[in-house]
Amino acid sequence: MMDRWTFGLTMLVVGMGGTMITLILLSLIMSILKKIFPYNPEEEKKD
Amino acid sequence: MLDAILSGLNGLIAGFASLHWSNLVMMVIGCFLLYLGIKKDFEPLLLVPIGFGCIIVNVPLSGVMEEEGFLRTIYNAGIITELFPLLIFIGIGAMTDFTPVLENPYTFLLGAAGQCGIFLTLLLALALGFKYNEAVTIGIIGACDGPTVIYVASQYAQNLLGPCTVAAYSYMSLVPVLQPPIMRILTTKKERETIMKSGKRTVSKTTKLLFPIVITIVGGLIAPKGLPLLATIMLGNLMRESGAVERLTKASQNEIANIVTLLLGISVGATMDGKVFVQPTTIIILTLGLIAICLDTVCGVLFGKVLYYITGGKINPLIGAAGISAFPMSARVVQKEGQKYNKKSYLLMHAMGANAGGQVGSVMAAAVMLSVLKGMGVI
């Protein structure tokens, strides 16, 4: 069983790092999706 | 005959005789929560049922939280099974417009920075001697997201469900009081006066439709333990954006969210039994919760300052404070604070982006945390 500080620091590094990396990844994917499916006012009106 | 009358009368005073001082304290706290909800308009939809549930459970000998008591039945059906927070999440997804975060995907990063308080508070809780699962649950208060706190607490630290939930909802409602001083301390006048350009609409309907699907798949693959949280909020959002299931969207936004909020509130209140709740641990948890939400704001604003310098002063660091899950309250606080220093500054849409990012960020942080715990073999 790991000690409290190892556990805490692992959670801080992997947990916060994991959250940051995931959200960076999602922000990149959304930016790419915006490029692939650009906003077209006319199409939006049709919908 | 006299004995029978005395026994009968005894039944009528048994409640008074069994009343413990801690029950009285909790009844006062219950009334205070009702006061906050009714008179001060602080999260009334939750604080009113929580406050009333708290009063009910502290009336001795009622048996409402004993096996087959009506509150125990509701609690077992919705909290133990995690159903209530997940159903609330469908409603939140159906109510939230994620367009501002899609307009400026970088605001996702502010939503990530706003979750630092979770992990820093976890460290503090560990330092104070809480068990691993308890420290995680206390840290999650920093998500500033009631249903997430309930979801995690109901799985890993049911003994802390009451104080953690009360802390989460109380501090969420105190965001307009807690955030502005921190924002002022950490930023200069020049930074606060920064005007941000408002861009044109750039998000297509297809992107809005793909957003919940992509988040669910990518987020779920990275953090499978948190998939229920992610999937429910994204299902609600998909229903909203598709426009194809208007009845379900409206039911999720109104009837389902309202009924579940009532049942969730009253069953959370029912965990606030005086003999369990009135102890030093509760005060420590409430303090740690406050620290968590303040740390979220500190980290969000500091990250906002980093973006301010990277972009050559194009981003107002105040919007970093909105990278928490208190939606849309936090964005409104940022807008108000920005206008105080520059009447021409309209930060609302940018802050809404950070705030929506914070909504996704808090769920993602909880999901990542649960998956890391699973990976470490702690849960």
How would you describe this protein?
With 47 residues, chain A is mainly alpha-helical. Chain A is 83% helix and 0% strand. Chain A is rod-shaped and about 60 Å long. Chain A has two helices and no strands. In chain B, helix 4 packs across helix 16, helix 9 runs antiparallel to helix 10 and helix 11 packs across helix 18. By secondary structure, chain B is an all-alpha fold. The mean pLDDT of chain B is 91. Chain B is 74% helix and 0% strand. Classes of the chains: A mainly alpha (47), B mainly alpha (379). At the A-B interface, helix 1 and helix 2 of A face helix 7, helix 8, helix 9, helix 14 and helix 20 of B.
Compose a concise summary of this entry.
The complex is a heterodimer of chains A (47) and B (379). By secondary structure, chain A is mainly alpha-helical.
Portion of residues within helices of chain A: over 70%
Strand content of chain B: under 5%
- Specify the biggest β-sheet of chain B: none
Q: Which quaternary structure do these chains form?
A: heterodimer
Give the low-confidence spans of chain A.
Answer: none
Sum up the overall morphology of chain B in one term. Answer: globular
Report mean pLDDT of chain A, rounded to a whole number: 86
Q: What is the N-to-C succession of helices and strands of chain A?
A: HH
Strand content of chain A: under 5%
Q: End-to-end span of chain A in angstroms?
A: 57 Å
Number of DSSP strand runs of chain A: 0
Set down the secondary structure blueprint.
The complex is a heterodimer of chains A (47) and B (379).
Chain A: H1 4-36, H2 41-46
Chain B: H1 2-17, H2 21-38, H3 44-57, H4 70-80, H5 83-95, H6 99-103, H7 107-113, H8 116-127, H9 132-139, H10 146-156, H11 161-173, H12 175-186, H13 189-192, H14 205-222, H15 227-242, H16 246-269, H17 274-277, H18 280-310, H19 329-341, H20 348-376
Helix pairs in contact in B: 2-3, 3-16, 4-16, 5-10, 5-15, 5-16, 7-18, 7-20, 8-9, 8-18, 9-10, 10-11, 11-18, 12-18, 12-19, 14-15, 19-20
